[in-house]
Design goal:
- The complex is a heterodimer of chains A (70) and B (516).
- Chain A has 70 residues and is mainly beta.
- Chain A has no helices and eight strands.
- Classes of the chains: A mainly beta (70), B alpha/beta (516).
């Protein structure tokens, strides 16, 4: 079990994966809006998405857990 | 045959046998032996060793103790693609590659020779650390290696390849060199090993978690490159050297490529998204502008919001620095500032012209960055660019806001030529942030339901007036506004024009005080 955390604070504008999806270091799992930019978030590891902890439109903090990956 | 000749021949025979036996120990761990590594690195048959019969501190020559000859390190002269280099390789099979006095003095001697002859030095590290049996004497000799690394720094290129353990004080020799290549699975670097870390602060980590190649290539930035195995690491060294001069008094080698310099790349005109919020991969732009397949990235997996590396343009070796909108929007933060400023200083020391591609929303906000010292780290970028006197060419691709605009090699920091794409926005801050400040009163005085429309209109006006390259160009901050498709030939002409640039030296001083 590993956690994908947010590299910075911002608003979630799009979630690109769903529970059960296989992801790796090159998968943009979601897009954040921060600093007037759309910022892709990439995990530091590969695995399968177990749980998504946030919703589209939600404001999140830097370091917040976004997803649980197995 | 005389007795003395016979003796030498038999000694050589026994050395050869001992070397082969010990090579097997390395092979069983998936590693090459020291001499195999040297032979794989250098042009075939070019190696000529120094101090090959030296014995450990306090010992005398003993014909029965063959393995101690050389004291666990092989050093000498050789060539790579016909160019001279000095190399040393630690031998893990003799006392765990531990660094004794004779071993370390030999490394110091190799670096001194490299400086005298103006040749790059390559260190192949595979050692358990300072030799405990020789106590403070080995530490003294280790200090000597550090001193030589520092004295050589900026005069000859220094490349370290970590091909086994490298722990404690021994880490600082590679750390003082210019590039560190780590080999997957077999290498690790840490100041304090897992056992002590566990007993002192209670962290339970494996050597790989504490200081393996992935950690150093992605998190700490200690490693500039990772290789899958010994041979790949040595190939990386050969490739890296092809971009570098032998020493700071020479220009880097010119290597003809078959990529036409007037190549127009019409697709590039559509490549950069007009929507300033949309990311794209800056590396695609770099790869398509410079000579085909010549981009050699440095620190690829560290601080990916910036991209640095070498490439060729019309055959000339150049250094590239760019923001990477694909990661964190291309923001400048602590790690990317360190990465950028170190690379600039390396290129400047070795006469490699700098090409800077700008697309950044600014410096990263937040307590994590402020507490970590983004002010002093970010200052390094400004320092390094200002100090650099090689040709400096800047291309403003899209966003260039505020302090980050100045820092990314603007005209103010001595850029010789500044170009902008039509998509460039040069301003104190982005339109949205700016109008919230400038028109605060007007916005507050407007009924809430009408505010959104007002803001949108003001943003549009602001963008038209300020957020474009034409205003900056009219004030002389930009030399020309160019089409992406013509970048390659425009940059090549700029490089030729600047190739005779005279380096200016202003004040005589010992050295500046770079923020660290």
């Amino acid at each position: 079990m590993k956690e994908v955390t947010s590299p910075l604070s911002g608003k979630v504008i799009r979630i690109n994966v769903k529970v059960g999806d296989k992801i790796d270091e090159n998968t943009s799992v979601l897009v954040l809006e921060s600093m007037k930019m759309e910022i892709d978030v990439y995990p530091e590891f590969s695995g399968v998405v177990k749980e998504i902890k946030i919703k589209e439109g939600e404001d999140i903090e830097s370091g917040q857990v976004l997803m649980i990956v197995e | 045959m005389s007795k003395s000749i016979e003796n030498l021949k038999s000694l050589r025979e026994r050395i050869k046998k001992s070397t082969e036996e010990r090579a097997n120990l390395q092979h069983s761990k998936g590693k090459l032996s020291a001499i195999e590594r040297i032979n794989a690195l250098l042009d075939s048959g070019s190696f000529s060793p120094i101090l090959s019969h030296i014995t450990p501190y306090g010992s005398t020559f003993d014909s029965q103790k063959i393995d101690q000859l050389g004291d666990g390190v092989i050093a000498g002269y050789g060539t790579i693609n016909g160019r001279g280099v000095i190399v040393f390789a630690e031998d893990f099979t003799f006392m765990g590659g531990s660094m004794g006095v004779a071993h370390l003095n030999k490394i110091s001697r190799a670096i001194e020779l490299a400086v005298k002859m103006g040749l790059p030095v390559i260190g192949l590290y595979d050692s358990g650390g300072a030799r405990i049996q020789e106590g403070v004497h080995s530490l003294t000799a280790l200090g000597g290696v550090f001193y030589n690394n520092v004295m050589a720094s900026g005069y000859i290129p220094q490349i370290a390849v970590i091909m086994g353990p490298c722990a404690g004080g021994a880490c600082y020799s590679p750390a003082l060199m210019d590039f560190i290549i780590m080999v997957e699975k077999v290498s690790y670097m840490f100041i304090t090993g897992p056992k002590v870390v566990k007993s002192v602060i209670g962290e339970d980590k494996t050597p790989d978690e504490l200081g393996g190649p992935t950690v150093h290539a992605t998190k700490s930035g200690v490693a500039t490159h990772i290789a899958k195995n010994d041979l790949e690491a040595l190939q990386l060294v050969r490739k890296l050297l092809s971009y570098l001069p032998n020493n700071a008094l020479l220009d880097p080698p010119f290597i003809q490529t078959n990529d036409p310099i007037d190549r127009v790349d019409a697709e590039l005109n559509q490549f950069i998204p007009e929507d300033q919020r949309k990311p794209y991969d800056m590396k695609v732009l770099i790869n398509r502008i410079f000579d085909k397949d010549t981009f050699f990235e440095v620190h690829k997996d560290f601080a990916q919001n910036a991209v640095v590396g070498f490439a060729r343009l019309g055959g000339y070796s150049v250094g590239i620095i760019a923001n990477q909108p694909k990661f964190l929007g291309g923001v400048l933060d602590i790690d990317s500032s360190d990465k950028i400023s170190r690379f600039i200083r390396f290129c400047n020391a070795f006469n490699i012209p700098l090409f800077t591609f700008v697309d950044t929303p600014g410096y990263m906000p937040g307590t994590k960055q402020e507490y970590g010292g983004i002010i002093r780290h970010g200052a390094k970028v400004i320092y390094a660019y200002s100090e650099a006197n090689v040709p400096k060419i800047t291309i403003i691709v899209r966003k260039a806001y505020g302090g980050a605009y100045i820092a990314m090699c603007s005209r103010l920091l001595g850029a010789d030529v500044v170009y902008a794409y039509p998509t460039a926005e040069i301003a104190v801050m982005g339109p949205e942030g700016a109008i919230e400040i400038i028109y605060k009163k007007e916005i507050e005085a407007t009924p809430i339901e009408e505010r959104q429309a007002l803001i949108e209109r003001l943003v549009k006006e602001y963008r038209e007036k300020w957020a474009n390259p034409y205003e900056a160009a009219s004030k002389g901050h930009i030399d020309d506004i160019i089409l992406p498709e013509e970048t390659r030939s425009v940059l090549y002409k700029a490089l030729l024009k600047l190739s005779k640039k005279k380096y200016e030296f202003y004040l005589k001083k010992k050295h500046g005080i770079i923020p660290t």
